[in-house]
TrEMBL record:
It is found in: Cytoplasm. It comes from Pacificimonas flava. This is Ribosome-binding factor A. The gene is rbfA. One of its GO terms (biological process) is maturation of SSU-rRNA. Pfam families: RBFA (PF02033). NCBIfam families: PRK00521.2-5, rbfA. Keywords: Cytoplasm, Ribosome biogenesis.
Amino acid sequence: MRHNESEQGRSVRLLKVGEQIRHTLSEVLQRRETNDPDLDAMIISVSEVRVSPDLRHATAFVKSIGGDDEAMLAALKRNVKPLRGQVGRSLTTKYTPELKFLLDESYEEASRIDALLRSPEVARDLDDDEDEEPGHGAA
């Protein structure tokens, strides 16, 4: 592995640029600086931004907190140009990436895994494992 790449294969520079874009988007949305009443009325979490290797495209993973995800995505798509402009002012890269917004489904996945771990079948299996003494498994 090259020393300028993370374990996931993305370079440190891409990760830094993605994090800088995430911070900028989060601040703009938090401060209600979009001049869109629909968007300004929403609470939006920007969990991650992935940047393409050529720094021309960025995908922001977003989630509406207590709101309608479809309405949030529509509002973000309506405001993509002003948001891109604000991102461009915060970056020191040659290009300002084209922004794309996708719904962050990791929250639902975490909830699904949590529900599975709390299910009676898993709890029963965990209780059975604790009853056995270490090194004396069932034969």
